[in-house]
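Entry for the shared binder. Reason: the reviewer on the internal report wants the predicted structure included alongside the sequence.
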Amino acid sequence: MEDLVEALFEAEAVKFGSFTLKSGLASPVYFDLRVIVSHPRLMLQVSERLWDVGRSVCPSALLCGVPYTALPIATLMATAHERPMLMRRKEAKQYGTARMLEGAFAAGDVCVVVEDVVTSGSSVLETADVLRQHGLQVRDALVLLDREQGGRETLAGAGITLHSVCTVSRLMQVLLDRGRVDQATVDSVSAFISQNRATSPPPASSPSLGPGEVAQSYGQRARLPSTSAVASRLLLLMEEKRSNLCVSADVRTAAELLAVARAVGPHVCLLKTHVDALDDFTADLPERLAELARSHRFLLFEDRKFADIGHTARRQYQGTCGGGCTAACDVRRLLCGGFSECGVWACTAGGVFGIASWADLVTAHAVAGPGGLEALAGVGVPLGRGCLLIAKMSSQGALTTQGYTQATVAMAEARRDFVLGFISTERVTHDPSLLHVTPGVKLQPGGDDLGQQYLTPEEVVGRRGCDVMVVGRGVLEATDVTAAARLYQQAGWDAYCGRLQPATAS
């Protein structure tokens, strides 16, 4: 390792002076490992040292280099040791297959991420995110140099163990011992590293990912002061019914929707609908659904995915009252703007589905900014409704990047009275008062021809620490829908109990 450090210095992959980093900070040291592509022997040294530190995790896994510097390194490792490799694109092509991930793989495969330098861990997480969206498992990352600025801890919080060839501290000591730098330079780098560490990871009492996590029960989270009323109601219902299952009732007719609700009702905590996709929606359907929800104790979740400006989103959410309302009906009077009576479709709210009058939860994209969310909250909060923001989607090539997800989390934290959590393929925050609802779940992993990626209940609830799993075709296409729902209910609950501490799970 000492010879490798000196070789990197000779190749000017390690530079000292004053350099502006991507973060805007002025650093006394800069690592430019892109130059090693012009030094074949050095590239081979780097790839072999990375293989050595990751020997225990590589033989049974695929390899994926973070674009672009780590791609040739991962290629050498894959070639020398006959390991399959995947290639992640930074952006999807606008032609051909338009894939974000190239190579042969199957959902459930394990993949190791390869990187040159880790500072905050964000580049590794971006690649891991793409891999996980495609159904792959990411538990380990190999890096040549750990800058010791919080990346290792950040990755651990996302369930990824970092294996490094060298740390900045060790590198500086080697260069000092070999007379390549003086003590003043070592002290300057050391001071910079210690003063510019990433934010520390969340406390162990928060929900985390991976084996051995310490998680709070649904009931404990329901009683947290920061948990919204709707989230608390859902969490308590989940604990009472011993179910974290949401069935996605994507059907064509009202009769089919009601039949699914009756069949799966005893086994779900949520029923997800797309009423605008029905061929025969009628004004009385929501009340018939609501009656089944009351009877079987589940919440109604209309997956509308609002994404427009505030004025339009509010009208889409409110809808019309459908007629027949009276002064005694608080919900209808709120939606009608205070009218005590109105004719059929006569009030001015707009939209025929009246979503806010019956759906306990809706979904919204953060793309329109806080204004759209504020408009929805203005309607939903007085009615005791809640919203899930789309943080990460399960479809292949989704554009919900890490920056977008972080902005979505910030919007949720600003409207906790209305936003109870996220639609996401994995946890995007360690705040236990916010829920994570994950679509695309099947007992057998895989995908369809439209880019939907399926994950198992154990992966979603057990390993990734998500709260509610959404199952569609796995239940709807079963010969016995009720039996399938019961099977998924048990699988999801077993995964949840498995991730709790023994004392809590018992």
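Summary line for the report: The domain at 2-195 is CATH 3.40.50.2020 (Rossmann fold).
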